[in-house]
Queue: 3 jobs
Job 1
Amino acid sequence: MHKKIEKSILLLSVLLLVNFTACAKPKQRAAAQETQNKTQPAINPEIEKLNRVLLSMTDRCKAAIPNGDPEEFLADLHRVLEVEKNFRTDDLSLYFLIDKKHSVGSDYVPRDLIPVKGNELWNVSRNDLSLRPEAYAALEDLSRAALNDGIKLLVSSTYRSYQYQEGLFNRYVKQDGLELAERYSARPGTSQHQLGVAIDFGSITDDWGDTKMGKWVYDHAADFGWSLSFPQGYEDVTGYMWECWHFRYIGKEACRFQKKWFGNIQQFMLEFLDAWQNS
């Protein structure tokens, strides 16, 4: 982290300062503000916005964010947002937040889906798979790198329509009951698969992460912009049980941002970006 005096306000310090001045009585708050103005450089508007957004995040998300220079955080954030400017404008952003609280309609279909057929780069478990162009290109890059290390990836699930997900979810409800089904299957309109940017690799079983293929993907996916969506121990955050096989394409810069500032938890990072852009 940077050690320059003019950048010495740490993210945690900013949060504590706001909490202190907000809870103080009017005279105390005025005195605290006056002391702040005399002893610290003025906080730029973006740091004030950062503070507001961070305060709006869940306690677990805030706990995952390491203490650090807010201007360094903002510089990394702007690199992520700069990448977003190059995303196609006729479809949802690759950073679009979709979860149990954020959804898309039954009529949403990603633009220009590309069929994912078995080829020299990867194997497939079925013949009706497809991805958004950006995710397809990233899958090609990931698969070439895997082949160079002697591993041929198996793609088992990709884009799912609203209607397909509806049928799948209803089937699981009949099989296991609503409470259990909601822990491992998304309701229609809330699945990352409907965005056309998510892949289930391999056997879609818990032991896949311990296979040679699974270990390789874990070690290298982020280098090609792929992020694990539902990590172990975060069901209360993501809404879903651990899925070692489910990766979402968000791009290399977002993967770096996620790892550096959000404990490498995709949900925290996407929730932050959504809050930032809507703040």
Job 2
Amino acid sequence: MLRIIIQKAAARLDTVVLQKILESFVIHVRIKNVFAGIDATGFGHGQSSYCYTKRAKLRRKFVKLSICADMKKQIICTVKIRHRQRHDGIDFEPLLKKTNSILPIDTIVADKGYDSEKNHVAASNLGITSIIPPRYADVPVYKTRGHYRKMLKRKGYDHKSYHQRNKTETIFSVIKRMFGDNVTSRKISTQNRELMYRVITYNVYRITRDCLLILYDFYTAFFHR
């Protein structure tokens, strides 16, 4: 009976409410300046198995999840879910602005898939340092378009800060290991909610995990002196 009540309650919550819940985690962990990373990954869906779709030469459907997360705490701040194949860069600015409206972002890192002068300008207008390596490193500076993209080629960038971006891959890996890399819902609205619940559950896991580690360190320091 309790399971049915929970399922009905979950089905009635829309993504706006779930986004507010997601934002509350960022405020809860008290991050002063967000060191943000943006990335995207795909989740398969449909009733046919991967082997069947490959054998039958069918186009496998997927849902794309784009996130903006804090690299220090590995907490997801905002998400964007798409059901059509679009370039990753189209979600950079909306995610950046939405996260910055919750808490100020100090630095944003993203891979070469987000390389665009427009994205650098969007970050600069908000007073955010953007580290997005330009594509086609062998192309000379004078042939590279855009002030910020040319500046990155001339002056370079902090590779240590940029490689913090790898933590977005860790976040996706944890989510997929915990819940799988496929969504089971049929409707688009329920698929969106399903992914939002996974993201919220991941944030809960991160926060409680950190608390448990602190308690464990306290226990070992106090009782094993």
Job 3
Amino acid sequence: MLNVLTLSSLFPDSTRPNFGIFVQRQTAALAMRPGVGVRVVAPIGLPVWPLARSDRFRAQAAMPLREVWRGLDVSRPRFTTLPGTGGRFHVPALIRALVPVLDRLRDERAFDVIDASFFFPDGPAAVALGRRYGVPVSIKARGADIHHWGHMPATRHQVARAAAAADGLLAVSDAMADDIAALGVPRGRIRVHHTGVDQARFQPIDRGEAKARLGISGPLILSLGALIPRKGHGVVIDAVARLPGVTLMIVGEGADRAALQARAERLGVADRVRLIGAIPHDELPGLLGAADVMALASASEGLANAWVESLACGTPIVITPAGGAGDVVTSRTAGRITQAEPEAFAVAIRDVLDQAPDPWAVRATVRDFTWPTNAAALHSHLAELVSRNGVGMRS
């Protein structure tokens, strides 16, 4: 029996049901494999008082410290974050919060390996805890955990040291693996571990009927992601302004909402741009299946789940050459990779609309991106670390 302790500060909860849902899906798929036992520790960072008294943090503070979440045994310890410190003290605060929790979990049933599914602050904490409990540690890089924390003055050395000390390293794409290697880690130590998608839920539907339910008759472009500058929604709005008759729906929430709405009004396309906010993940297949193109002008990514989910729904994508773009756009059937400039995006979107590829051919481009495949690769990786480090798996 391989007993896995999954550590991830990126994990959904009742206040943020979409937050890190791909980590939850990966972990659930791993737990379904024969001979694998999984417990999850999903720490929640809360700021010092009185900031912690805000509505957002009050709800998180009130959550149970341990619960069964979508069939998984999840512990949710709290650790204190200090605003204005650039994350410098996240790791020691996290370790202090985790030690009593992991001591209890170990007393219940020993674990063979720690699987850190986000690089910071989880990765450096996992390395320290792996030494404490005498078990190997794997750390997975997903995107912002390297692109942001791996370059911030207060945290970059912590990230680099964790990468060097970990027993195993995973990356969501080839480009992400190169970014880890740039921290000074040999590229050969890093395995690419692609995400999965629920192929039964994310699949083509009748696009015309789906559009009609949304009250849209012409071409529909979907942009999916948090309303923050890094996602480049403004570029897509500018591109749609160059495409008469095209409707844009932006799914997500964030601080840029008012600015994006003002941008659409300034360009005279507010009647063709709908900012619909965040929606439950279970509702995404219907929107993705209705769209003719999913366009996302990200400045940086690891390998966006939105890309794979769109393609599984038969919707081609127009994206920037960020992160693992080349891992998913492997043909013109899948879409286009172009620069994050309004004219370039407009040309690429129009090109895909004119091509109108068969949705089932689009879907075939990501047929290998499944959660069972993802879980099998993760199982093999973790079992190899346990074997290599001479840790006997517990029954």
